Each structure stands twice: as structure tokens, then as C-alpha cells.
UniProtKB/TrEMBL annotation, chains A, B:
Lineage: Eukaryota, Viridiplantae, Streptophyta, Embryophyta, Tracheophyta
Protein name (database record): MADS-box domain-containing protein
Source organism, top-level taxon: Eukaryota
MADS-box domain sequence ranges: 23-83
UniProt keyword annotations, A-Z: DNA-binding, Nucleus, Transcription, Transcription regulation
Annotated spans, Disordered: 1-25
SMART domains: MADS (SM00432)
Amino acid sequence: MQTPNLAVKQRNGRKQQNPKTTKGRQRIEIKEIQEENRRQVTFSKRRTGLFKKAAELSVLCGAQIGIITFSRCERIYAFGNVNTLIESYLRKTPVMLRSYYGGDVATGVDGDGPMWWERAVESVPEEEMDEYMKGLNGLRENLWTRICEMSGDPTAQMNAQICPDLMAPVNWKLMDENLTVKNDQGQAGYDGY
Amino acid sequence: MQTPNLAVKQRNGRKQQNPKTTKGRQRIEIKEIQEENRRQVTFSKRRTGLFKKAAELSVLCGAQIGIITFSRCERIYAFGNVNTLIESYLRKTPVMLRSYYGGDVATGVDGDGPMWWERAVESVPEEEMDEYMKGLNGLRENLWTRICEMSGDPTAQMNAQICPDLMAPVNWKLMDENLTVKNDQGQAGYDGY
DNA sequence: AACTATCAATAATG
DNA sequence: CATTATTGATAGTT
């Protein structure tokens, strides 16, 4: 859009037969990128793109969105009001913590009404178990998710990059189509893959 | 790509001066969409796109990604191994929970010892898996999965849309460039915004 | 929900 | 990290 194919304009009719300076974007297969460097670059680019998309969706539709990303290098990248979302999420799924840690975390949380597992019986069990088992079987990662009801006003968005022992918050400004990133920690020289 | 501008091919040189059948994609401002219907459509489309992007990023770069989305209509849409990710996330930012549960969460685990979430770090993956299996086995519905040490290659992704009192699991298959969605509940006629 | 024209994301380069 | 050519996402329409 901006000075498209500049080379053509500048050197039209010259010796060079092919005005194209690059091959442009090429189609890639969706499978793990083996070359480390290329993978890092892709991760960085696409994570940016993903967060941008999330920001736009949030603004356009007034939705609350949170994204947590763990890169292989044990870095966490998060988008959105993650803490708030997680809180809401956990509030509705306190059992997770209980069964997981064997503690009494959720004691008294659910108060009246049926417990989560009793409610659960009504919903689709079979397919899920199947999928779950398959996931386990393959010893991969797979996951899960939850239900609940939640509302709130979605206006501000926030983005944070969190390192294992070092929190490096990043503020996202959504202005038209350009997002600027400000890293308060100033971890320069390393994109943070 | 697929039969581009079919109208031209079929009716080239006909009476119609303008072969264009639609205005195509138009640029929109990133601000809350007021018209409800349009907002819902956009939410649905873009959420799909967002999850697809996340799936691709996950596969391409071997990253763990979780997305939680709260729509205004109190529905939650989640992507990825959310629970696992949240757990990991909480390990890094345990303080978060204290305020949320009024400090009572750690009851029975408090004192000078490590908090429950801190203890979790020491948990052996295999044990956790066992807990998982038991929980799911007996109680069905509640989700999730475990990855051993957060490593391994991520190929399969899963996506679920959860409605209050009705779980409508959706399986995502990431194949080349086409993602197919299978809704086991068959909640036809309503996209689930 | 399916289609199409257009805009936006990004793989390969510089 | 800036550019650019290309693929991919999607706004408007049916």
C-alpha cells in the first residue's frame, strides 16, 4: 500500500528483468518449525498479531479476553486483564484446585445449589472423556475448560510479559491500527521469546 | 482463490457493467460496534479467527496457549489447556489469589509453610495425572488435562465453547489451512455468542 | 451460513 | 528491525 513495489517505480525498464525484490509472503505448513531462529521470529511476530487481534475483538465486541502464552523458554506472555479473568474463571471452577491439590480450598465456596459435579452430569460426558483419554494417551497436552457466567465492562486492555522471576509489564495502546509497545523494564536487545 | 469473481466468468460482457457482486471487505474503525446483530456476527467470526491463529502459533512454535473470552452475554469461550496454563500462571503470580478469596483460600495450609500454590510446584506430574484421572473418571464433566513438565510437542489443539448449564464441546482439527468445527451438541441456529 | 472483494497479517528479504 | 510480495482474514452481502 505504501509505495508498493518501489523498485519498479525507480528502475523501470532497467537491466533487471524481475522487479520483485522478495518472494513476498510464502505459504507455510502448520507444523512445528524446527529451525530455532525462524521459530523465534515467527513466535514473536505471530504473538504480536494474536494479541492485536484479541485487542481488536475486545474493543469491537465489548468482550473480556485473556491470553496466556508459555513459550518454550519458560517465559510467559499474557494479554488482557488476565488476573480478573482467571479470578472469574476459578470462582466458577474451584474444584479444580481442590481435586488437584487435595486440599480444602473450595470449602464453602459453592454454598447452596448442586455441586459442580452434580450439575455436570447433565452435560455431555461421553465425547469428552473420549477426547480426554485420547489426550492422555498420547501423553501430549490437552486441556480443558469451563463454564460460568460473567459480565463486566470491557474497555481497557492490558498486556504483560512475565518472566520467571522478573515481571516486565507491557502496555498496549490500541490506536487505530497501530499498537505501540512500551516495556517498562526495558529489557532491550532481546525480544523476549 | 476459489472461483474468484465468478460473476465475471459467467457473465462477462453482459449487460451488467459492474461485475462486482459485493463491496468486499471494508475497513472498519476499531471501536465498539453498536449494532447488536453486527457485533455478534463480528464476535463470532473474529473469535474463530483468533482461536485459529492461536492454534497455528501453538503448533508452529511449540508454545502453550490459553485464551479465555467472556462475551457480554455471560458466555465463556476458552481455547487451549486453560487450566494447566492458569495453574502455571498462578505459580508465577501467587499473590493474585490471596485478595480474591479474601485470604481464606490458604486456610489450613497457612502458617509459615508454603502456600498451597507454592507446594504445587513440587508436585510430581505423574501424581497430578492420577488425580486428574480420578477426578474426571468419577465426576465426568470438569475438564482438563495435564502436560508433563509443560514440554512435548503440541500438535493437537482443543477448543470448547461452554454455555451455562450446557456444555457444547467443539473439537478443532488443525489440518493445513482448514479448520473444521464439530459441535457435538448440535446447538443449531445459534452460534453461541 | 456461504460467498466475494478487499483489507490485514506475515514469510522471506534487505 | 524495515520492506514487499503474497497469503490469509473478514466486512458486507445474499
